[in-house]
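Help needed: design a sequence for this.
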């Protein structure tokens, strides 16, 4: 079971802070996004936004990063600083 966490504005927009997803096999972040979209198509705008950051097991990741069956994946909205 993969634990998926959403932070900041993503949490507000999606209406959920945590989502659990059973993977049929190991995948990468891009594959995980596709599985999430199959289950939650209304999340498309946010999951496919290239500015959204992702971490796998608390390490910043890319779409090519591996996601195992017991991973924790976190999505962060785009941030601005000042």
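Sure. Designed sequence:
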């Amino acid at each position: 079971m993969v634990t998926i966490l959403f932070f900041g504005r993503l949490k507000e927009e999606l209406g959920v802070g945590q989502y659990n997803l059973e993977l049929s096999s190991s995948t990468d972040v891009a594959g995980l996004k596709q599985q999430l979209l199959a289950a939650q198509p209304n999340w498309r705008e946010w999951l496919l936004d290239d500015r959204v950051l992702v971490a796998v097991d608390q390490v910043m990741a890319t779409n090519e990063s591996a996601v195992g069956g017991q991973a924790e994946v976190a999505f962060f909205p785009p941030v601005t600083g000042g």
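The helical segments are 8-14, 29-39, 44-47.
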